[in-house]
């Protein structure tokens, strides 16, 4: 059996999604003439109680556009040291926006209002201006950790007090919402902008949507074009995303259950230490010597189970819609066989 736990980005379109893509009505989206792209943008924005959306090729692009629109050169963004915008976007905050980062150490990537408040820089000529806060929910490197809605509200209050904007890197916000049962619009009210990924747990092949006010998205559209992200008959891709939002968010709790099954197995293995608390669909753990992440991955791969290294001694599993219960049970068996 082959079980791919490398990422929730590895999924292939479901038959219903492919059908939606094949029958999509399309046009040239640079001229705002693609009805399916517009439908996806409107649907996403409304879901979070916002005015407008912008379909982009990737979550890196939606995040980077948000940083660019919210800040000016010599500003800084406050975020956790584990955050995707700092760790995995090639330092794009400096490249595209000419800004710095003010890194905090939250609990598994989750910030508190007190931490953010204490990090805001006073206004001196020799300091960057703290202009933007980014929260990541769920936090990838934090092991799929989630925010309480009340924590987001408190952070928003700090932002308002200091004249800072608040952006959500919501690549996996639907995993968080599936777990807490909260509505997207309850979240949206506290945020100036939101990035959602359609190509992670939701199972679309490509795409992210940036969400915000009309004025914010109008500017974001210009930045997207400058970054080369203006797409033409993108409705074929938007159709997949729209289908994902409408049909594939409810099943995410299944992935979370599978992640907890893997966690339970790992907790029984003598060569596993430091399993990060499993909150959603990501399982991160360390291995003990003489094992290394590479040696464990090699043994797993021999039996058809793929995972990724998150450090020399750290392994990550991500569950998703192409891994069913039987596949998880098989992966558990393989884990037990590693000595
Ligand atoms: C995947 C991811 C992104 C965006 O990644 P792309 O591969 O560029 O779509 C952004 N933030 C987080 C937390 C992610 O996991």
Characterise the protein shown here.
With 339 residues, the protein is an alpha/beta fold. The protein has two domains: 236 residues, Aspartate Aminotransferase, domain 2 (3-Layer(aba) Sandwich), CATH 3.40.640; 87 residues, Alpha-Beta Complex (Aspartate Aminotransferase, domain 1). The protein is 42% helix and 18% strand. Strand 12 and strand 13 form a beta hairpin. Helix 1 packs antiparallel against helix 11. The longest helix is centred in the C-terminal third of the chain and has 16 residues. The protein is globular and about 55 Å long. The mean pLDDT is 98. Bound molecules: pyridoxal-5'-phosphate. The site of pyridoxal-5'-phosphate has 13 residues, from helix 3.
Offer a concise description of the structure.
The protein has 339 residues and is of the alpha/beta class. The protein has 14 helices and 13 strands. It folds into two domains: 12-247, Aspartate Aminotransferase, domain 2 (3-Layer(aba) Sandwich), CATH 3.40.640.10; 251-337, Aspartate Aminotransferase, domain 1.
What are the defining features of this structure?
binds pyridoxal-5'-phosphate; 7-stranded mixed β-sheet; Aspartate Aminotransferase, domain 2; 4-stranded antiparallel β-sheet; alpha/beta; 13 strands; Aspartate Aminotransferase, domain 1; 14 helices; 2 domains; 339 residues
CATH architecture of the largest domain: 3-Layer(aba) Sandwich
Backbone shape: globular
What's the domain count? 2
Number of H/I helices:
14
> H/E series, N to C?
EHHEHEHHEHEHEHHEEHHHEEHEEEH
What is the gyration radius calculated from CA atoms?
A: 20 Å
Uncertain spans: none
Strand order of the largest sheet: 2-8-7-6-5-3-4
CATH topology of the largest domain: Aspartate Aminotransferase, domain 2
Biggest sheet descriptor: 7 strands, mixed
- Measured as a percent range, the helix fraction is 40-55%
Could you report the average pLDDT, rounded to the nearest whole number?
98
